[in-house]
Design brief:
heterodimer; A: about 70 residues; mainly beta; 5-stranded mixed β-sheet; 5 strands; globular; B: about 260 residues; alpha/beta; 3-stranded parallel β-sheet; 9 helices; about 40% helix
Chain lengths: ~70, ~260
C-alpha cells in the first residue's frame, strides 16, 4: 500500500501496521521519545502493533529533538 | 507566587529558577555539560519528524543530567497543530506538562495571541499543565491565567534576538497581577538580562540561545545560574529607591570642622 510518511510517498507491505511505518521511517520502534499521528489523530503507543494502516493515509512519525 | 528558595509550578518544586531550552547546542554532549553547569532542573524538548541520520537520544542524555523534560510545541502556527503536538508529546514523554508555543509570524517569531489562548483553554480542559510562551501583554497574561495555565511566560523580546527586556513596565504589571508563577521566556542575551528579570519579580527565567549559541556555552550557563540567583536575592532583599541627588552613607552628625 501507498501512504504518506512524514510528507513523502512510501510503499509499505499490504498488512502494514504503525510499527512497520515507524521502522520504515528510520526510527527504532522500541526507542524513547517517539509519537505517531495517523491522519491527524494520535495513535497511542500500545496500539501501534494492532493499528493497520490503509492506502492513502498520512502518517507522521515524530521524535524528540533539541528545541525551545 | 513561590516563596524563597524554590520555584513551585503546579505543585512541583524546583530548586533552580532557571529553565533551559535545549535548542541551538552544537551537540548533545555540549548540551549536557551546559545543563550541569546551569543547575537547571527543567529542560525543554521538541518533537520533530524522524531524521534517520540523527545520532544519540536526547531523552537519554537529559535523563542522565537528572533534568525533568518539558516538551514544547515548537514549530506550531495554529491552535490545532499545537493541541495535536501536545497530545503527541504526552504520548512520547509520558508527561502532562507542555510549554505551549504558537507562533504568529515567522520573522519575529512573536506569539499569535488568539491561537495561543484557544490552545491553552483546550489543553487545560484535557488535563495538561500548560506553560504558555506569550507576548508581554498584561491583559493576555491575565486571560491565560484565567484559562487555567500553571504559569505565564511573557517574552522579554523575540526568541533568539538577545534584545533583553524591551518593556520592563509591562513585565512589572504582569508580575504584580499574577497569582501563578511568571517565567520570563525569550529574549535574554546575557546574564544581566536574566538578573533584571528576577529583580523585576519574575519567578524564573527560561532561556536557550543565550547559552547554546554563546562562544562558551558552559561558561555562559554558569553565568546565568549566578545571575538568576543574584537577581532573585536582590528582589527578596529590597533594593534602595532611586534618587535624583546623592545621599551620603556616612553620618551627618559629627562632621569635623577643619578650617
Amino acid at each position: 500500500m501507498r501512504v504518506t510518511l512524514n510528507g513523502e510517498p512510501r510503499e509499505l507491505g499490504q498488512d502494514a501496521s504503525v510499527v512497520d511505518a515507524v521502522a520504515a521511517s528510520g526510527a527504532e520502534p522500541e526507542g524513547r521519545g517517539l509519537a505517531v499521528a495517523v491522519d491527524g489523530e494520535v495513535v497511542p503507543r500500545g496500539e501501534w502493533g494492532a493499528f493497520e494502516l490503509r492506502d492513502g493515509q498520512s502518517v507522521e512519525i515524530l521524535k524528540a529533538v533539541q528545541g525551545g | 507566587m513561590a516563596d524563597g528558595a524554590t520555584l513551585a509550578i503546579a505543585g512541583r518544586e524546583f530548586r533552580s529558577r532557571l529553565i533551559l531550552g535545549t535548542g541551538g547546542f552544537r551537540s548533545l554532549e555540549s548540551m549536557a555539560e551546559a545543563i550541569a553547569a546551569s543547575r537547571a532542573e527543567l529542560a525543554t524538548v521538541a518533537l520533530w519528524r524522524v531524521d534517520p541520520s540523527a545520532r544519540g537520544s536526547i531523552v537519554e542524555v537529559l535523563e542522565r543530567t537528572g533534568c525533568t523534560l518539558l516538551p514544547n510545541t515548537a514549530g506550531c502556527f495554529t491552535a490545532h497543530d499545537a493541541i495535536l503536538t501536545a497530545q503527541l508529546a504526552r504520548e512520547a514523554f509520558e508527561t502532562d506538562w507542555i510549554k505551549l508555543e504558537v507562533i504568529g509570524d515567522d520573522r519575529t517569531l512573536l506569539p499569535d495571541a488568539s491561537e495561543l489562548l484557544d490552545a491553552a483553554e483546550a489543553l487545560v480542559g484535557e488535563g495538561f499543565v500548560v506553560l504558555p510562551y506569550s507576548n508581554d501583554d498584561p491583559v493576555l497574561a491575565r486571560r491565560l491565567e484565567d484559562a487555567g495555565c500553571a504559569a505565564v511566560m511573557p517574552l522579554g523580546s523575540p526568541i533568539g534576538s538577545g534584545m533583553g527586556i524591551r518593556n520592563p513596565y509591562n513585565l512589572r504589571l504582569i508580575v504584580e497581577q499574577a497569582s501563578v508563577p511568571v517565567i520570563l521566556d525569550a529574549g535574554v542575551g546575557t546574564a544581566s538580562d536574566a538578573a533584571l528579570a528576577m529583580e523585576a519579580g519574575c519567578d524564573g527565567v527560561l532561556l536557550a540561545s543565550a547559552v547554546s549559541r554563546a562562544a562558551d556555552p558552559v561558561g555562559m550557563a554558569r553565568a546565568m545560574r549566578h545571575a538568576v540567583e543574584a537577581g532573585r536575592l536582590a528582589f527578596e532583599s529590597g533594593r534602595i529607591p532611586r534618587r535624583l541627588y546623592g545621599e551620603a552613607s556616612t553620618p551627618t552628625e559629627g562632621v569635623p570642622e577643619l578650617t
